[in-house]
Amino acid sequence: MSEREQVDAAAAAAAEPADEAEGAAPEAATEEVDLAAIEAILFATDSPLSAGKIVEIASLEGGRRTVHRAVECLNERYARAGCAFRIEPLAGGYQMLTLPEYNDILARLLKVRNDSRLSQAAMETLAIIAYKQPILRADIEAIRGVSSGEVVRGLLEKGLVKIVGRAEEIGRPMLYGTTRRFLEVFGLTGLKDLPKVEELAIGASATKPVSPEETPTDDPAPQPES
Which among 60, 113, 169, 187 is most buried, taking Cβ atoms within 10 Å? Predict the structure, then answer.
């Protein structure tokens, strides 16, 4: 073999690994895209999804095997990172679930959420206090037209309302206002973020159902008989 042939052979041998690496890079990138897509789908769903459904949603070329491999790979990553969740087989599909050791913590979270649920009467009373504070219970009842003592007491227990002072009148009745907890529950930075009363009025009128008598008609108005 001549010197020129030896140089060409060495160059070809050196190029082969590079070609293989170039071919492997797109494949690895595709696998990462598949992993990310499957992870996003399972993160967003609140019910188990079958492998076939995941393939359909993510338009995966590898079929169900791709989903099974992706779940194994993602769970390995979660375990290495010390994450509090895994992708678990459930009801013929897959769902992202927290680990059992966190059940007690999550139970407390759910209890807080349930305790924060309000009845229609409580929402009405809370709205009055929020917009009219500081306000007397008598004034709340005057606006609602019904006794509101039990409702106010319930709002106090939930930490949404507090006693902010006493009125300068006979008997020194208590004045009520909202709390920091109220702002947290309704996602407000301050009372200035409450919707304007005018905006609420516009929204209510926009959603008011139209009665049959108010429905426009193309029929001509009846003419009086002569």
Answer: 60
